[in-house]
Amino acid sequence: MDMKNWLREQMTADKRRALPVLSFPSIQLLDITVRELIRSSDAQAAGMAAIAKRCPTAASVSLMDLSVEAECFGSQIRVTDDEVPTVVGAVVETVEDVEKLKVPQVGDGRTGIYVEAIQKALKQIVDRPVFAGVIGPFSLAGRLMDMTQIMIDCYEEPEMVHATLEKATQFLLKYIQAYKDAGAHGVVIAEPAAGLLSPDFCGEFSAPYIKRIVDAVQDDTFLVIYHNCGNTIGRMVPEILSCGAAAYHFGNAVPMIEMLEQMPEDVLTMGNVDPVSAFRNGTPEKVREDTLGIMETCCKHKNFLISSGCDIPPATSWENIDAFFAAVEEFYG
């Protein structure tokens, strides 16, 4: 698939399709738990296919499970039946821990399951691109070191942070390449922890590592979408644009129109209906109002694509999700 052409189509179409980060609510369509979903490539592929059948999305997006990569490095994770898995504790506390930290192989932990899921999904979804989801380097390092500690160490132990980032990036390069080799049309790199950094620190501890990944994998057939849902992202637009990603996705912590006014007109920019207050805890009417409100403000920008602000929680009502797509149809209709 010519993904550069797909990008152009999203920005030139009179009626643009939505591209929410929508994967975990597939548990309701399959009548399974999150615990079952994250351990089965068949279930993940079936869930992606079920969502693609039900929802007129611009592309299909796999699980935004930000525990997978950290688990490969030895992190413990907490898994429940109805919530996205989370990382518990730290595996890197000293310089010696970093030196001993082994860079995993693709296939370790659940990574093999997730790559296999993309291969299986591609056989069932043939009418739109299929994107894999991975964590970003700084966000992965934060899970390995503990988020509070890495923020301190950016000041006090920057060399240790960079050493951890180097190993995180080495693994992510191999992991994303495996998705590319499996046939994925691109990857969504979630780097939410970078939203906690100052612009200067984003330019030191996050953006250069993302750029290495983009430079290595992005081409005419494979795109990188950068996601950041931090509330200070509006202050670091030059830094994140230096990554060179093909498209950018922002969370609901910032007004979408403020981000669009800073983004180049030829860079696809997505967001940002609140996944919690609207999708998860709201009503169909609130989802409709919020979606239409953002679209009425932002769709004058041709490079804008309506989306959720982050991944939509597993237990979100499908009545609310359907209301989102109905609102998009209403806006263009």
What is the terminal separation in angstroms? 29 Å
Low-pLDDT parts are none
> In terms of quaternary structure, what is this?
single chain
List how many beta strands DSSP finds. 9
Percent in strands: 5-15%
Walk across the major sheet and give the strand order: 1-4-5-6-7-8-9
Structural class: alpha/beta
Mean pLDDT across residues: 97
List the topology elements.
Layout (H helix, E strand, L loop, with lengths): L2 H10 L13 H5 L3 H4 L3 H14 L5 E2 L6 H5 L3 E3 L7 E3 L6 H6 L10 H14 L5 E6 L1 H9 L1 H10 L1 H25 L3 E5 L8 H7 L1 H11 L5 E6 L8 H5 L5 E4 L5 H5 L7 E6 L1 H6 L3 H15 L5 E5 L9 H15 L1
Helix pairs in contact: 4-7, 7-10, 8-9, 8-10, 9-10, 10-12, 16-17
Architecture overview:
The protein has 333 residues and is α/β, with parallel strands linked by helices. Helix content is 50%, strand content 12%. It is built from 17 helices and nine strands. It has helices at residues 3-12, 26-30, 34-37, 41-54, 68-72, 95-100, 111-124, 137-145, 147-156, 158-182, 199-205, 207-217, 237-241, 256-260, 275-280, 284-298, 318-332; strands at 60-61, 76-78, 86-88, 130-135, 186-190, 223-228, 247-250, 268-273, 304-308. The protein has a seven-stranded parallel sheet, with helices on both faces. Strands 2-3 form a two-stranded antiparallel sheet. Helix 13 (237-241) links the parallel strand 6 (223-228) and strand 7 (247-250). The radius of gyration is 19 Å and the shape is globular. It starts with a helix and ends with a helix. 50% of the residues are buried.
